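hey so u asked for the seq, here:
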Amino acid sequence: MVRFNCDYSEGAHPSIMERLLQTNMLQTAGYGEDDYCEEARKLIRSKFGAEEADVHFLVGGTQANLTVIAAALRPHQGVMASSVAHIHVHETGSIEACGHKIIAFPSIDGKITAKQVFDCVQAHKIDESHEHMVQPKMVYISNPTELGAIYSKEELEKLSSVCRENHLYLYMDGARLGYGLAAEDNTLSMQDIARLCDVFYIGGTKVGTLFGEAVVITNPELKPDFRYLIKQKGGMLAKGRLLGIQFQVLFENDLYMEISSYAVSLADRLREAFEKAGYPFLVENKTNQIFPILPDIRLEELKKQYSFSYQQRIDKEHSAVRFCTSWATKEEDVDSLIKEIFKQY
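ran it, structure tokens below
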């Protein structure tokens, strides 16, 4: 069985595994206070042009989202997000469990607009009973989104502007950030993200590491006591150097973008094959996630050799599914799948 169902089926990039083995018997301080974590922080600050940013390494994406949102919001405040946002549908109510409401906006591709944010804030302000309602305070976006779409520089600038005009925090979930930055139609730079967001995280779990994400805080308001929240929310790793080493390897020689570009190039080949075979897509994107719509009978045949994710029912005979490529996807597996796509049953 060849897995195209997600982008974290394998372990870690060989360069990361090699460095972990090389440093395995060295003694370091714990909880992210070691030299490897500090060097990784310096590399990330340099790459993103954010020399004053605080950088924290957490064990996973859910812990990153939970910790950032809990740290930023007061008890009566909520976070705005798309209706398909990861925090809304795939994190088991972790945000709500901390007492914060998710204010969900309808979205086709997972993106939300500056107008949606502005309208929500204005509706709250003019409502005579606003003190009896959850106060919108943070905007959560994923880039790429859960459906593989990416924000343009113009879109992110508009979101950032409306957030700053209304004293809102803008938070970007970058679980697949590398794949977004490597997309053919991307117009955002690393520096743009650091400049326009108050806080964001750089995904490692889905982009080459064994586990772990790097939270980058650029807004000074969100920096105090953040490590307390990391510990409280279960995101702090005692052997923190394992996280620092991994991000050090990713960013010291542009490995992060190298492996992201590789994954996107393979996704482009699959996307082109589905298109040439006459299959439409649930959403259009240029990242490493592909959402073709196929007859159920074809999907049953593909299931015999390939694993992919079910997305949604389209009609009684067709379904939308997701195929993912990653840093570890083999070219020969892509070649094999392309042959199957064009095979007639």
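The mean pLDDT is 97. Residues 79 and 202 are 20 Å apart (CA to CA).
lmk if thats what u needed
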